Amino acid sequence: METIPYDKRSGKIWFNGNLVDWQETKVHVLNHGLHYASCVFEGERVYDGEIFKLEEHTSRLFHSAKRMGMLMPYSEKEINKACKEIVGAQKIKNGYVRPIVWRGSEMMAISAQKNKVHVAIASWEWGSYFDPKLKLKGIKLNISSWRRPSPNSVPWDTKASGLYMICTLSKHEAESKGFTDSLMLDHEGNIAEATGANIFFKDKKGALVTPIPDSFLDGITRRCVIQLAKSKGIKIVERKIKPDEMGNFVGCFLTGTAAEITPVSQIDKFNFIVCDVIKSLSENYQNLVRKKVAA
Fold first, then answer.
1. Domains of the chain by residue range
2. What average pLDDT does this structure show over 121-140?
3. What gap in Å lies between CA 237 and CA 250, rounded to an integer?
4. Are strands 117-125 and 50-51 parallel, antiparallel or unpaired?
5. Contact, 199 vs 209, CB < 8 A?
6. Do residues 202 and 275 touch, judged by C-beta distance below 8 A?
7. Contact 97, 123 (CB under 8 A)
8. Separation CA 65–CA 55 (nearest Å)
9. Is 196 helix (H, G, I), strand (E, B) or coil?
10. Which residues sit opposite 122 in a β-bridge?
């Protein structure tokens, strides 16, 4: 299905404190965020008109900005209010919110001490990240040739734009080979995550096994799913996982704001079933985000 390019859409974007016409929200080509990846962002879901886990996302945005040395020109309270404002202005029922923070154009070199920090928030109607039909039977992943960097080489615990370039490369590589997404290993060769989502495996004893997030983002949805699983009496094991261990697991799924809970049927040569535990967790998660059960 053809979609409208994001620079051609209509409505408003919250831009440095004001609601600006969508197509008039522009930045100069010589901005530090574009050239040197001085940019952090968040991705938030709107369910039935309300943003899920808004405060947690905003807190992480501020953490990311601080780690990147960017002083936020607004408070967390102001950003929370702005996110709600743009969702209301756009009349979003079920969609997405993208807050983004970047350094401007005052300096164009590695140093950016005098650059203004800009903030924008956009929101739009948005459905499933993966094809709903694929989600029912499980998506297929290859194993990326790119790896998550060593944690002492990048600000790995942030949603910084520069960290996602290898994700784009990995996903493009996967799609060119007929896969939906790609599994990324960490710098030591352990299983890390998919290109934009955390990963869980179900072992033969019924426990959920997931990598320790020590070189990649500990997702808000990941933490939410762990709480859900524990409330159902499911054992959670967080540990290092080698790729060849995948043959010992019977189920697999991804978690993320965009991915929600997405079953996986294949990773490279390893196959998995979309078991009842995964289906149940997915249903529980949908009930939670739509406030059919208490958080």
1. 9-125, 132-289
2. 88
3. 15
4. unpaired
5. no
6. yes
7. yes
8. 15
9. coil
10. 98
Q: How far apart are CA 233 and CA 216, in angstroms?
A: 27
Q: Which CATH class is domain 132-289?
A: alpha beta
Q: What is the pTM of this model?
A: 0.95
User: Is the CB of residue 251 less than 8 Å from the CB of residue 202?
Assistant: yes
Instruction: Report the alpha-carbon distance of residue 71 to residue 248 in Å, rounded.
Output: 46
Backbone angles phi, psi at 194, to 5 degrees: -85, -170
- Of 217, 154, 145, 218, the residue nearest 184 (C-alpha): 145
Q: Give one word for 57, left, alpha or beta, with left for phi > 0 and alpha for psi -120 to 50.
A: alpha
Residue 135: pLDDT band by 50, 70, 90 thresholds? confident
| φ/ψ (deg, to 5) at 137 | -105, -5
Q: Would 9-125 and 132-289 be classified into the same CATH topology?
A: no
**Cβ atoms within 10 Å of 37's Cβ, excluding its own:** 17
Burial 160-191 (b: 16+ CB within 10 A, else e): bbbbbebbeebbebbeeeebbbbbbbbeeebb
8 Å CB contact between 120 and 85: no
Question: Can you tell me whether residue 151 is helix, strand or coil?
Answer: coil
Note the pLDDT tens digit of each residue in 48-102: 999 999 999 999 999 999 999 999 999 999 999 999 999 999 999 999 999 999 9
- Tell me which fold the domain 9-125 belongs to: D-amino Acid Aminotransferase; Chain A, domain 1 (3.30.470)
Give catalytic residues, as residue numbers: 159
The DSSP symbol for 24 reads G
What sign does the CA torsion over 36, 142, 187, 220 have?
positive
**Which residues sit opposite 12 in a β-bridge?**
21
CB atoms within 10 A of CB 140: 18
Write out the H or E segment, with its range, that includes residue 212. Answer: none
